[in-house]
C-alpha cells in the first residue's frame, strides 16, 4: 500500500523536530512549564517520541497508531505553547502575535494527523 506524499511530509517534519530536541535541547527545556518536573528528561522523551512516531507513520501497518500517538503528543505539549505565550522568558523573544498564532496551529496539526487514523 502506497502512502500519500503528505504523510511523508508530516513524518519528515516530526522527525526533524525530534532530532532538534537533541541538537538544541535548551530551546525546548526553556518552554516546559515549571510545574512539570525534570524538563531535560521530558525534552528527551518528547524528542524520542517524535522521531519514533515519524518512522511509524511511514510503515503502513503502524500508520494509524502513529497518527494517534502524534495527536496525543500534540495534546501533551500544548501547555508548553501556552507557557511560551504567557511567560516572557519562555517566549524566546518571539513576538506575542506569533506565539498566539501557534495555539490554533495545534488544532490544525491534530486535524492533519487525524486524517491518517
Please sum up the structure shown.
The protein has 117 residues and is mostly helical. It has five helices and no strands. The protein starts with a helix and ends with a helix.
Question: Could you describe the 3D structure shown?
Answer:
This protein has 117 residues and is an all-alpha fold. It has one domain. The chain is 74% helix and 0% strand. It has five helices and no strands. The chain is globular, with a radius of gyration of 15 Å. The mean pLDDT is 96.
SSE string: HHHHH
DSSP strand tally = 0
> Which oligomerization state do the chains in this entry correspond to?
single chain
- Put simply, the count of helices is 5
Keyword list:
mainly alpha, globular, 0% strand, 117 residues
Amino acid at each position: 500500500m502506497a502512502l500519500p506524499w503528505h504523510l511523508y511530509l508530516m513524518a519528515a517534519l516530526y522527525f526533524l523536530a525530534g532530532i532538534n530536541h537533541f541538537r538544541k535541547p535548551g530551546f525546548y527545556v526553556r518552554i516546559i512549564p515549571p510545574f512539570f518536573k525534570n524538563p531535560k528528561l521530558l525534552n528527551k522523551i518528547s524528542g524520542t517520541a517524535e522521531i519514533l512516531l515519524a518512522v511509524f507513520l511511514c510503515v503502513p501497518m503502524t500508520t494509524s497508531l502513529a497518527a494517534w500517538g502524534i495527536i496525543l503528543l500534540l495534546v501533551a505539549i500544548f501547555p508548553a505553547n501556552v507557557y511560551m505565550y504567557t511567560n516572557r522568558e519562555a517566549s524566546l523573544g518571539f513576538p506575542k502575535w506569533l506565539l498566539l498564532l501557534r495555539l490554533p496551529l495545534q488544532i490544525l496539526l491534530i486535524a492533519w494527523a487525524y486524517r491518517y487514523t
